[in-house]
Structures are given as structure tokens and as C-alpha cells.
Amino acid sequence: MNGLQRFWDTFFNGHLLVDVFPSLLRTGLLNTLVLALLASVIGLVVGIVIASGLMARTRFARLPSRCYVDVLRGLPHILSIYLIGQGLPVAGLNIFGTWTYGYAALAIGLTEGAYMAEIFRSGFQSVDPGIVEAARSVGMSQRKTMRLVVFPIGFRQVLPALTGQFILVIKSTALVYLLGLAAGQREMFAIAQDASTNDASLTPLVAAGVLYLAITVPLTYAVNAWDRRLREGPRAAAIDPVMRQEAIA
After folding, report:
1. pLDDT digits (tens, 9 = 90+) for 99-127
2. What is the pLDDT of residues 54-76, one digit of tens each?
3. pLDDT at 30 > cutoff 70
4. Domains and CATH numbers, the chain
5. How far apart are CA 16 and CA 35, in angstroms?
6. What does the alpha-carbon distance between residue 47 and residue 65 come to, in Å, rounded to a whole number?
7. pTM to 2 decimals?
8. DSSP states of the chain as a string?
9. Neighbour count for residue 58 (Cβ, 10 Å)
10. Is 206:12 a contact under the CB 8 Å cutoff?
11. Cα distances (angstroms) measured from residue 232 to each of 79, 235, 237, 245
12. Does residue 241 register a pLDDT over 70?
């Protein structure tokens, strides 16, 4: 009985849950989502630019992009975030002044941009060459074809992968506690970790885990449903009306 009570107090202490949940919801959840969105926007921009470099025809354009992807994907997330988030201010590159939150978003965004670049590259290169040739045959320039044809089609194809990457971004926000965020800037993990250290219990971390799951699991199912609609919609619209009437009959 004592062992069961100790297990319960370690992971599911009701008093600690009541104490920590308001901070997790009011401060931690908001900061986690804002940080994830900022980092994702940075990652998307970086990913598209690097993906364009990866698909360039000249080696001088491909090589820097390939080096960027290999280095950022090869390093552990925690090391990249620490080197970028702490290293830039120490090196005198005070891009965001004393706003640690900005460095945290930049660190995650630059790291995730390497992964998104490969996602975009695979999506853009998977576009049917016949569609590209048809666009060029009607007089579209290569740049206009990429912007109006390849990018929209490729983006739709990689939507599930991008969403999965966004979920990883949400989880990566837990690593920015290394950068020493101010009290009002702390995300869910930082708040839960501080509470766990002060109360000698893992209950606050369990509470943070529940909130992470409450974000990531519904998001995964929602985007999967959206992706099914995107894939099934064009096929349904392309069915000949006569054939559709015959199918109904």
C-alpha cells in the first residue's frame, strides 16, 4: 500500500495538479504555441529557400544548401538550439537585443528549416512532369510555373509531413529552457520542471505531458482528415457526370 501511495504521489499528486495547472494553461500553453508558430514560420521560409537551392541546376547553388541541411540535421536538436540561441548573443550578433524569446524561436526555426527543406524538395520534385511541361507550353516562365503550379501542388502533397514536423516543433519548444527564459516567457516544460524540482514530484511534468498530448493528438487526426479530403476531392470532381449518374442508378 505504501508503495502504491508513493507511486501515486510521484506521478498523480492531486494537490500539485491543482497548483500547477493554472500556470501551465495561463502562461506555459500560450508561450508554447506562440513559440511553435514563430519557429514554424521561420522554418517554412528557410525550408522553401533551402529547397529551392537543393533543386538548383548549378552546383554552386546546391552545395551551400546541401551543407546546411546535412549539418543541421546531423546535430542533436539540443546542441543546435544551444549553439544558436546562446551563441549568437555571445558572439555579438544581438539580432533580438535582450529578447530571449526571439533567439529561442530562431534557434528552433533554423533547425527545423533543414528538415522542412527536404520535405519541400521531395514534394516539389514529385509533381508530375507532364503538368510542368503543359504550363511551360502555354507560355509560363520557369519562375511563374514554380510559383503557380509546382509550389501549390507540391505543398498540398507534403501537408501531412509538414504537420508532423509542426508537431515536432511543439515538442522541441521544451528544449529552450536551456536559454534561460524570463518567468513570463517560460513554456510548459520549463514551468513543469521548476514545479517538479521545488516539490520533489513528477506530477507537474505529467500534467505538462497531458497538455502536449491534448495539442498534438487532435492536430494529427485533424490534418489526416484534411489530407484525405484534399486527395479525394480532385478525384471526385474529375468523374464524368454521366458516369456519376450511372453509379447512383
Report:
1. 788 888 898 999 999 999 999 998 888 88
2. 988 888 888 999 999 999 999 88
3. yes
4. 7-248 (1.10.3720.10)
5. 26
6. 10
7. 0.81
8. -HHHHHHHHHH--HHHHHHHHHHIIIIIHHHHHHHHHHHHHHHHHHHHHHHHHHT-SSHHHHHHHHHHHHHHHHS-HHHHHHHHHHHHHHTT--TTTT-HHHHHHHHHHHHHHHHHHHHHHHHHHTS-HHHHHHHHHTT--HHHHIIIIIHHHHHHHTHHHHHHHHHHHHHHGGGGGGG---GGG--HHHHHHHHHHHHT-SHHHHHHHHHHHHHHHHHHHHHHHHHHHHHHHHHHHHS-HHHHHHHH-
9. 8
10. yes
11. 42, 5, 9, 18
12. no
Cell of 230: 484534399
Residue 50 cell numbers, joined:
533551402
Rg (CA), the chain: 23
CA 25 to chain centroid, in Å, comes to 21
d(CA 33, CA 39): 10
Residue type, position 118, single letter = E
Contact by Cβ (8 Å): 12, 205 = no
